[in-house]
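So, could you explain this one?
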Amino acid sequence: MSGLAALLAGHQEPGIYHWHGAFEAVDVRATVELAGWQFGHLDGWTAGGTKAEFLAAVGDALRLPGWYGRNFDALADCLHDVGGGTDGVLLLWDGWSTLARDDERAFSIALSVLGSRVHADRGIPFSVLLRGEGPHVPDVPSLD
């Protein structure tokens, strides 16, 4: 987990990264939470192949409030408040390629909204790991 360890320790800038770690999600959660970060797991293989499924799944993964409207504007609003009381927030997005292939526009908007939170100066780092293979996504480096 060296790339992940560097991210959690603050030696790697928060960001959106490709990651090929073959660890069970429960083990990644344990590592992330041990570092004091909030963990969210979005399983795009079972939910997340459509815009609506993605928006519902990311809301569940990040435990967004009940008023979350399941649209990209509401997601952007809610992301600003995620992670209070933690050292950071990490979203592990397995099966991201499903949305990327099935709805390129929604995937692009999702990355833009998540990226806006990554780069927002909120005092709490926010990172997204796109785990596994999928179509090439420009400007998304590898954490491996």
